[in-house]
Amino acid sequence: MRSNRLPGCDLPSDKDMKKNGKGTHMEKESDIDNTTLRAIKWLDRKGVTLLTGSDSAYPIKTTQRYDRVIGTP
Known about the structure:
- By secondary structure, this protein is mainly β.
- It contains one helix and three strands, in the order H-E-E-E.
- The chain starts with 13 loop residues before the first helix and ends in a 21-residue tail after the last strand.
- The relative contact order is 0.22.
């Protein structure tokens, strides 16, 4: 979803989120036509935005990723 399509949900730009590092996330909530929608944005290599009507970003889990430079997961 495009982050500018949901009124009342001002999500930060990718540039602002990069200051906090990979894995940073932000969740905003908006009510449209008596329906609560949540926009969740997290930073991977680029910003990823998800729109949901039911779930939240919590609980947060961490995973191990493969690193080409180090060569270990």
